[in-house]
Amino acid sequence: MAERNFRDFTGGLADRAAELRGNPEALEALLKAPEARVMAARAGDPLVFGEDLAWMRLTPEILALAAEPPTLMGRTQAGEPRFALDLTGREEIPPALAALAPEGATAAFLPLREAATKISPEDLALAGCARSLFVWRNDNRHCARCGGAMNSASGGWRRDCAACGHQSFPRTDPVVIMLVERGERCLLARRAGGALWASVLAGFVEPGETVEEAVRREVAEESGQRVGRVDYVCSQPWPFGGQLMIGCLAESLGEAPLKLELEELRDGVWATRAEVARAVAGRGYLQIPPSFSIAHRLLKLWSEGRIGFR
Ligand SMILES: [Zn+2]
After folding, report:
1. Is 67 a member of any domain?
2. What's the CA-to-centroid distance between 194 and ligand 1, angstroms?
3. Are 196 and 190 in contact (CB under 8 A)?
4. 34-38, 162-166, 281-285, 298-302: segment of lowest average pLDDT
5. What is the Cα–Cα distance from 69 to 108, expressed in whole angstroms?
6. Domain that residue 160 falls in
7. Could you tell me if 103 and 180 lie in one domain?
8. Does any domain span residue 5?
9. Do the beta carbons of residue 215 and residue 178 sit within 8 Å?
10. What distance in angstroms lies between residue 143's CA and the mean position of ligand 1's atoms?
11. What's this model's pTM, rounded to 2 decimal places?
């Protein structure tokens, strides 16, 4: 299950150049490299020219648009540095950026969910990563310990308190997301007050828990099902909340009736492979999450018989 040739926030730069983040001279050299490029985002929504992520030269004029230095995203296979600039707080697209759009293409801050169906898979992975980093940055303007001002450090991958020295690192919250299988069927449920689609179950891993324990607890809490075997399938960074989605397959034991946690879930159904396959194809009565989500991927793999305990 290693193929990553579709848009799902994975498959970004293989070389994150993490070893250079703490080296000011190396960072300066990367910033000044003629082949260096920068992308920009506002509140996590990437700047696009038409349907492409906007990659721009790092001119002093562009760098001056942001409150903080650009974040080092890494290097391409050809060794070209890539950066991301946080333009959160800007109402309009600065004219200096709009002027860079190729003829016939409009410059826009595109909602990331919309960009997820348009820009290239590699660019989407970088836009997702930038969103997670910028959300963390904007949530950590002040020190959690003393309230002092936090400054960008380590190429944008750390924030240091000017007053007490406390350091903050970008956080990733682990979430288990599991396809619960019972015989030839799998469990799909609709979230209360959420989207219209039906999806697999998911929940945050709690302190002191393993992935398997979190899967068993969440499934029991949300659906009243007892889970036996748990297999890891794949994972996905989810930039809308800074989460790492840990995709699992869970085996429902026994014949306990569905007992949905009604504060969280509206209704649930045990769907067949054929029903899920129709939903993956965009047909049938079930609506499932979009193709860039790990839920969709789990359901697709299961409907094709590529994962499953049977
Ligand atoms: Zn502090």
Report:
1. yes
2. 38
3. yes
4. 281-285
5. 22
6. 140-170
7. no
8. no
9. yes
10. 5
11. 0.90
